Amino acid sequence: LLLRLRRRHLLTATPSLVPTLDTLRRQVQVALQEQQSSVAAIFYADALVTLSNYDPGDVHLLAQAYAVNGEHRRAVHLLERTGCLQFTAKTTLTVKNMLLGATCYSKCDM
Known about the structure:
By secondary structure, this protein is mainly alpha-helical. The protein contains 6 helices and no strands. It starts with a helix and ends in a 9-residue tail after the last helix.
């Protein structure tokens, strides 16, 4: 009987344990604002990108988390692999800083 109750509780509790995309985005933003928790930002942003099916805005958040952690090459590779290495007015400076950090000088002339 106890085992059945536990199973029933786990089955009903599981959907509420999955965070919403907005909750994950807030977690990433909070972690990025706190300079010391860039690893947490990467964790949340990676989950966000996976759950949002590689939404370009979420991919940029993950790339930004990589850059804050000093992983510039990884950030650039993520943006290239997902096709999000586009220069818009909002992301130009951030992406160019990532490229400079990864020493990809030839691509910075875009």
